[in-house]
Design goal:
The complex is a heterodimer of chains A (262) and B (139). Chain A is of the alpha/beta class and 262 residues long. Chain A contains seven helices and six strands. Chain A has helices at 7-18, 29-37, 44-48, 66-70, 93-97, 145-148, 160-165, and strands spanning 125-130, 155-158, 173-177, 182-189, 197-201, 248-254. In chain A, a hairpin with a 4-residue loop joins strand 3 (173-177) and strand 4. The chains are: A alpha/beta (262), B alpha+beta (139).
Chain lengths: 262, 139
């Protein structure tokens, strides 16, 4: 018997068990829903009488409301506006106060064509990854057979020139190798990418039992693009927001057919 | 399809048509995704159709939406709360009840609150608010 619970039920019940019931509608989902619908003059019972929902027209668009927008309380805990002077700041006073460069500053990624030309003999191509696809949500749902049948394997987009130079045909399995690790994916010949750059969809790790596809290794030999990048704490991250430089240099090598039995 | 078509389609197939919201992606889920009709046969969610009346998707539905029943009944899905009984990473769990699970989590968090203070727990949720907001409180 499946005893799955909605995530909202879980958090409301946990809040009640912690002693915060008063702030969490006493654990009642219908009460929480009624509370959220109240500004629209609706209740859950009234909404249920309209099985296809109620379309509420958006408010008329207001233009040139810079002053109101710039001074609006932010969702930060102290409620201060994100733009303290009521202006967009190119010279960012908040960054300066925290000890960072107040002006935008270009920093080379840990490995790049211009930053580390000494690596180009071994790793001549730029690798990056993207996160949006038609068939999957981010890095999950690879285990749903109907979706996995549409895209069975991770593919590397590679320009025809770069592929030809490496004797790589569309659909070949390839090894993509950087200073930090290697992954095994299929080549997709793709004229819409720069000849010096290759890219793939992130988030490949799950197998699909129904289709007999096993999970991928998380480290070398799988399809986990995260292992391809530097994690040097001084060079790989933006110092303010800790976003990672999802870019490195790689070589792409065709894997011969006999190796490709997994 | 529209509401009447959904009811008719369901009736012919011995199913129940349930107007609801798709939960297969980020913009979806409760709070404003694509309108769908979910079809239920003998208590089992069997298929999905896009809802014409929804201003979000106007009757269309993507591959993820169509695959929703496989997602719901996936053999990988956890169907009970599980309590870890081995060491971390060992992968040993036992089934427990929701009442026990919630009581144990609440007790653990309350104990951590007493021992280490409320900052011992952080929950990542898109409130458009950064972690530093929470860290700053105590500085």
């Amino acid at each position: 018997v499946i005893t799955s619970k909605s995530i909202f039920d879980f958090f409301l019940e946990l809040a009640v068990a912690m002693g915060y019931g008063e702030d969490f509608w006493g654990g009642s989902i219908p009460k929480a829903m009624d509370d959220q619908l109240e500004p629209m003059g609706l209740t859950m019972d009234a909404l249920r009488m309209k099985p296809t929902g109620v379309a509420i027209p958006p408010k008329p668009m207001a233009f040139e409301k810079y002053e109101a927008v710039f001074n609006r309380a932010s969702p930060r805990l102290n409620g201060e506006p994100f733009l303290p002077d009521g202006k967009v700041q190119i010279y960012n006073a908040a960054f300066a106060a925290a000890g960072f460069n107040p002006l935008p500053e270009w920093r080379a990624p840990p490995e790049s064509i211009t930053g580390t030309p000494e690596l180009l003999n071994q790793y001549p191509l730029v690798l990056s990854d993207y996160h949006t696809s038609k068939n999957f949500s981010a890095s999950w749902q690879r285990n749903v057979p109907q979706l996995r049948e549409i895209q069975r394997h991770p593919v590397l987009h590679i320009h025809p020139q770069a592929a030809n130079a490496r004797d790589i045909a569309d659909g070949d399995w390839v090894k993509v190798e950087s200073l930090h690790g290697w992954i095994k994916v299929k080549a997709e010949i793709y004229p819409g990418i720069r000849p010096d750059t290759v890219m793939l969809l992130h988030g490949w790790w799950q197998g699909c039992r129904e289709l007999g596809l096993e999970d991928y290794p998380i480290l070398d030999g799988g399809a986990n693009v995260n292992i391809m990048y530097s994690v040097d704490k001084d060079r790989a991250y933006d110092p303010l927001i800790t976003a990672m430089a999802s870019q490195t240099l790689v070589e792409v090598i065709k894997i011969k057919a006999q190796v490709d039995t997994q | 399809m529209n509401y009447h078509q959904a009811i008719e389609t369901a009736k012919k197939a011995g199913e129940r048509g349930v107007p609801t919201v798709c939960g297969m992606c980020g913009p979806g889920g409760p709070g404003g995704g694509c309108g769908i009709y979910a079809f239920v046969k003998d208590g089992k969610f069997v298929k999905v159709a896009g809802m014409d009346e929804s201003p979000v998707n106007r009757g269309s539905i993507c591959a993820k939406g169509h695959a929703a029943p496989q997602w719901v009944y996936s053999p990988d899905r956890l169907t009970h709360p599980l309590r870890r009984i081995g060491k971390k990473g060992e992968g040993r769990f036992e089934e427990t009840t929701w009442d026990e699970a919630i009581a144990q989590i609440a007790e653990t968090i309350k104990k951590q609150n007493t021992l280490y203070g409320p900052e011992a727990l952080a929950i990542l949720s898109p409130a458009r608010r950064s972690y530093s907001d929470y860290i700053e409180i105590d500085l």
